[in-house]
């Protein structure tokens, strides 16, 4: 079942990439669309971690946090940064919360007595690979997310060179490709080890 939510995340990434490009071509500004993307992907990945994480307290928090996120995302979109700017607060909150979920899941895997008793190596679990890919991606995108508006402002005033922004984007895209490879490895593991997806 976690694999289904990872597939939804991948599909949403493709849909939002195509949608963002179309909106940019038609309307000239697609920044509001990124806020919607961040919110929907946050909910999708929250469900993924809700399925994976076993701790009842953390599961309760995962059920509550999306409602708080909607509030934060709405305030950021309509009051703080606006619909015409990249919502760094929204993207940063999404990244940091998902990093916390990922760290909790890694710790759970390291301490899981069921896996130890069954002699299951964590690298055979699809969810390990999904979490690894997502964790690496959000580590990188967090820095990009919180600094993008500043980079844009510096670039428009001439204080930042275009090369710096391009370098950050290239790093983000390379890490995105690594993430897709890790998600693919997880999908391959799902095929081989159906027990790991239950």
Description:
With 198 residues, the protein is an all-alpha fold. The chain has one domain (2-197). Helices cover 83% and strands 0% of the residues. It has helices at 2-27, 31-52, 56-80, 88-111, 113-117, 126-156, 162-192. The longest helix has 31 residues, at 126-156. The radius of gyration is 18 Å and the shape is globular. The mean pLDDT is 86.
Round the mean pLDDT to the nearest integer and report it. Answer: 86
> Rough shape?
globular
E-strand count? 0
| SS-based class | mainly alpha
**Assembly context of the chains:** single chain
What's the number of structural domains? Answer: 1
**Termini distance?**
7 Å
Strand % is under 5%
What characteristics describe this protein?
about 200 residues; mainly alpha; globular
Layout of helices and strands, plus pairs?
Layout: H1 2-27, H2 31-52, H3 56-80, H4 88-111, H5 113-117, H6 126-156, H7 162-192
Keywords: Membrane, Transmembrane, Transmembrane helix
Transmembrane segments: 30-53, 60-80, 86-107, 128-146, 166-188
Summary, kept brief:
With 198 residues, this protein is mainly α.
């Amino acid at each position: 079942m976690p694999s289904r939510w990872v597939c939804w995340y991948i599909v949403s990434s493709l849909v939002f990439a195509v949608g963002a490009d179309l909106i940019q071509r038609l309307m000239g500004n697609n920044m509001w669309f990124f806020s919607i993307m961040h919110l929907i992907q946050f909910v999708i990945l929250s469900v993924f971690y809700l399925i994976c994480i076993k701790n009842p307290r953390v599961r309760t928090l995962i059920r509550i946090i999306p409602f708080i996120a909607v509030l934060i995302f709405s305030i950021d979109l309509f009051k703080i940064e606006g619909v015409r700017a990249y919502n760094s607060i929204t993207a940063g909150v999404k990244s940091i919360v998902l990093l916390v979920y990922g760290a909790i899941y890694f710790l759970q895997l390291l301490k899981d007595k069921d896996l130890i008793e069954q002699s299951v190596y964590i690298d055979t679990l699809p969810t390990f690979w999904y979490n690894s890919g997502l964790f690496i991606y959000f580590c990188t995108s967090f820095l990009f997310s919180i600094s993008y508006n500043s980079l844009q402002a510096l670039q428009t005033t001439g204080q930042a060179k275009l090369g710096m922004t391009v370098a950050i984007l290239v790093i983000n895209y390379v890490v995105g490709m690594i993430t897709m490879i890790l998600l693919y490895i997880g999908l391959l593991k799902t095929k081989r080890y159906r027990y790991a997806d239950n």
